[in-house]
Amino acid sequence: MPDFTDNLKPASPDGTTILRQERSQSDVPEDELAKHLLSRNDFLGRQQRILQVLEKDPLFNKNKQMNLSRPERYQLGLARAKKLRRYQDQYSWDAEDVSMSQYLCDDVSPYMVHYAMFVTTVREQGSDEQKAYWMPKIERMEAIGCYAQTELGHGSNVRGLECQAQWDPKALEFVLHSPTLSASKWWNGSMGRTANHAIVMAQLLIPKSEGSSEFVKKGVHPFIVQIRDMKTHLPLPGIAVGDIGPKYGYAPMDNGYMLFDHHRIPHSAMLSRYSMVDKNNGTYFQPKNAAVVYGSLTYVRAQIIMHARLIMARAVTIAVRYTCVRRQFSDRDSTDKSAPELAVLDYPTVQIRILPLLATAFALHYTGEAMHRMYETTRAQISKGDFSRLAVLHAQSSGLKSLCTELAANSIETCRRAMGGHGFGGGSGYIQLNNDYLSKPTVEGDNWMITQQTASYLIKRMQAAASGKDKPQDEIEEHCRQYLSERKSHRPDQLRIFDKDEDILEAFRRRSRDQTYRAHIERNERKRSWNSLLIQLRKVSHSESQSILVSNFYEAVNSSDASVSPTLRTHLLTLFRLFAFYTMDNEARDFSKANAVSEDDLDALPSKIQDLMAQVRPHAVKLVDSWKVPDFLLDSALGRHDGKVYEDLFNRAHRLNPLNEITFNPYYKSEEIVMGGGDDLKKILAKL
């Protein structure tokens, strides 16, 4: 039967025409910018190559995915994970290719923790002998792993973990045991139904003396443990393990629980690159630096920062394209009654929600790249026995993880709200993106909690600077000494943020040092309790992290990179100023207290921000295009590259919605739910 809707078109001008005009008015060198952003590890080439594989495979079709149940989503997720692994063999994909395939698939993989943390932990904390044994099994996916740290009763407080690994000197084994219900491992991804092995973080207990029944705690250590039978995949005796159930997001991920009942594991299970228990005499050798035990978390935090830029770029891409296509109301001051409706993005009240986020995506990118380099350098130093940079890496990665994931998570919701009613719909492309990403402010260190780690390090450096002993330990302490010297000798001049970009950097740095100094005084001189300072400490951490974002953005834009054309550099500088001034405006009181920026300049910030947004507005579409987020990944009617917003929204509702394939009986006097369906309700009731 003919469908008259097949011939209907949107009102003119349609989205395709609008986006074509948007792109034609901008001089942003899109391809140059894309290469500038995404050239490392041939990101763009990999994306194009792997996208061609996934787009052809019906297993990765997302048309009706949102209508599946949780068990179906896990099964689909596992099927996709297996298929990607087979593609790895078929096409000889390397680790970066695998990572790209998971990124494009956009379904959190039941194998994710295996790739992200299990492999990393064994590689970085296993001895040479352990790596020689385990890495081939891991690479062949015979040993499929997870990372079992968080417990039902403890998450961020790793020292408080209850799971025990007790050394038995007679049997030469460790005994894993969960002494309480709250000692149950909990939330650990890939553990519920997928993994057959786990990195179990447990409290190491050593006999107090030979033959003693008393034990001494030696802290939390990693153990590699088989948790399921390799043939039946059923839990081993003494292990209770399963999936924790539905969550806010991550439908395909089997976040699990696990308890041990005096489960014995061999001496070789303890990963022993940095610490070990002597098999012959039970002597414990502790790591030179305890923080290396949490090296996998530091790695993941660095990766999370890199990922945040792509999440924000994706959210902003949808918002910018849609708010250019969407028209609402004519110019209120126009005398022409037939004046066309304005693009939603032309309203400053929409610009202020979206365009600073566009600039922030670039800020996150440059700091993500800097953190990647810092991580690689630090790990290389550690491999040579040099732990001098580990504390800085840990402090910065903690603070930046907190700030960057908060910015990215908030950006999704801010963009969604800026798009009005359609932002709430399934065609927005935000539902799964939002639900899945909302875990990031919590996982790998709660965003409020881990700022203490950054603040603690900064206060120690300020305290060391105040003592004036020896040479500065690092550049942070050197800056602290400079700040104290200026504070002691004279009141530093307020900075000319609108005249010199370098003064913007200095303003953020001075504000950060001022926040650290105030916390140092409260803690070390006035002896206030740590708990009473927690809110202030979060500001200390965020101030430093914002300073890092601004500094990395500026340094990248002003580097001597000859591949950046003058035109592109001009656009990047505009984005830099927009990000810096928008951030400064939101924290204006701090800059005033630090005597970094004058009250007059702070008062002028809103006007400056609006001027910068007006400069960015004509180029917004090409700026988001430069992130090269494919439609396959966006899965958004609103954010389509071709602008066919309304055509896609209607197609999803009218042709792809499975609910419209069923005729229902709405009359309450009848027990029937589906016309001619009989006892369909019983099938639903059986699942409740």
Could you explain how this protein is built, in words?
- This protein is an alpha+beta fold and 688 residues long.
- The chain is built from 22 helices and 13 strands.
- Strands 1, 2, 3, 5, 6 and 9 form a six-stranded mixed β-sheet that branches.
- A hairpin with a 4-residue loop joins strand 2 and strand 3.
- The longest helix is centred in the middle third of the chain and has 36 residues, at 348-383.
- The mean pLDDT is 93.
Give the amount of beta strand, in percent.
Answer: 5-15%
The biggest sheet amounts to: 6 strands, mixed
Per DSSP, the total helix count is 22
Mean pLDDT score: 93
- Helix content estimate: 40-55%
Compute the CA-based radius of gyration. 28 Å
Look at the helices and sheets and give the structural class.
Answer: alpha+beta
- Residue stretches low in confidence (pLDDT < 50, at least 5 long) are none
The end-to-end distance, rounded to whole angstroms, is 39 Å
List the helices and strands and how they pair.
Layout: H1 15-24, H2 30-38, H3 43-55, H4 70-91, H5 95-105, H6 112-125, H7 128-139, E1 145-148, E2 164-168, E3 173-177, E4 185-188, E5 197-207, E6 215-226, E7 239-243, E8 256-260, E9 263-266, E10 276-277, E11 284-285, H8 295-325, E12 327-330, E13 341-343, H9 348-383, H10 390-418, H11 431-437, H12 451-467, H13 475-489, H14 501-525, H15 534-557, H16 566-586, H17 588-593, H18 599-616, H19 620-625, H20 631-634, H21 645-654, H22 680-685
Parallel strand pairs: 1-5, 2-5
Antiparallel strand pairs: 2-3, 3-9, 4-8, 5-6, 7-8, 10-11, 12-13
Helix pairs in contact: 3-5, 4-5, 6-8, 8-9, 8-10, 9-10, 9-15, 9-16, 10-12, 10-15, 12-13, 12-14, 12-15, 14-15, 15-16, 16-18
